[in-house]
Amino acid sequence: MIEPILLAAARICTFDGQRPMTNASGFFFERGRRLFLVTSRHVMIDEPSKHFPDRIEVELHVDPANMARSTGFSIPLYRNGKSLWRQGLDTAGEIDVAAIEIERPALPATAVFRAFTPQHLLGRLDQVEVGSSLLVVGFPLGFHDTLHHMPVVRHAVIASSFGLRFQGEGYFLTDARTHRGTSGAPVVMRVPEGNRVHGDLPWLLLGVHSARLDVGTRDLKLDEALGLNCAWYADILLTLTER
C-alpha cells in the first residue's frame, strides 16, 4: 500500500527546449475542480543564476496496479511570450513560491496522484509550536526510488516561532538536512489521530521549502553549516489559486 503523502509530491525537471537543466521538487494542490503544480518560484525563473527554462516536466504514475510505470508530463512555462505560472508579493518583496495550473484533460486518464486542498492549510497559527515535528517530502539532488518513482522524506522540526515572520519575511525556519533539488517540496505536519476531515491525506500543509539558510560570516573551515532552512508559509496558495 502506497502512503498517499508520497503520491502528493512530484519530481520536477526543468528544460530549455530539449536541454535538461535542473531537478526540483513540487506537489499537487487542488482547489475546486482546478489542479495546480506548486514549487519554488526560483525553479521557474532565477535571474541571479541565469536560470531561464521554457518548460518543466513532472513524472506521473500511470498504473494503479504497477507503480513502476510512469510517464513524463510536460508543462510549458510561457504562452505568446507571457509566463503561465503565478507568483506572489508581500510587503517584504517577492515570495519564493509559484503555482502553475495543469489542464486536467491533458493528463493521462490513468494518472495516479494525490493533491492537497485548502482544507489542508492551517486554520490558526497558534496550533503549531516551535520544535514541532515535520516532514519534508521531496527529491534531494534528484535522488528517489527510481523503480517506483517515489520521493524520500527528511525529518525536520520548526526552528523559529511559527506565525512570526522570520526577520519580516514570509517564511519560518526548519531544522533539517536538505540538499539542492528539495526546492519546492511540501513541508507537512501529521494531523492528530482521529481527525477525518483530511480524508486519506492526514497531513497539514505548513510550508513550501525554499533554500538553506547560512551565515555570511561563517568560517568555512572552522564552522559547520547551520542546517537551517526557509519554508514559505503555505497560505500564500489561497492567493495564488484564486480565479
Notes on the structure:
This protein is mainly beta. It has one domain (4-240): Thrombin, subunit H (Beta Barrel), CATH 2.40.10. The protein has helices spanning 4-8, 41-44, 236-240; strands spanning 9-16, 19-31, 34-39, 55-61, 70-76, 78-79, 82-83, 86-90, 93-102, 133-138, 152-158, 171-175, 186-190, 203-213, 228-233. Strands 5-4-1-2-3-9-8 form a seven-stranded antiparallel beta sheet. Strands 10-11-12-15-14-13 form a six-stranded antiparallel barrel. The model has no long low-confidence stretch (mean pLDDT 89).
Summarize the structure.
The protein is built from three helices and 15 strands.
Q: How many angstroms separate the termini? A: 36 Å
Integer-rounded radius of gyration: 17 Å
Number of domains: 1
The count of strands amounts to: 15
CATH level-two architecture: Beta Barrel
Q: Indicate the percent of residues in helices.
A: under 10%
Order of helices and strands: HEEEHEEEEEEEEEEEEH
Largest sheet: 7 strands, antiparallel
Number of helices: 3
What is the CATH third-level topology name?
Thrombin, subunit H
Indicate the mean pLDDT. 89
Determine the structural class based on helices, strands and strand pairing.
Answer: mainly beta
Shape: globular
Which parts are unreliable, with pLDDT below 50 for 5 consecutive residues or more?
none
Level-1 CATH class name: Mainly Beta
Strand order of the largest sheet: 5-4-1-2-3-9-8
Strand portion: 35-45%
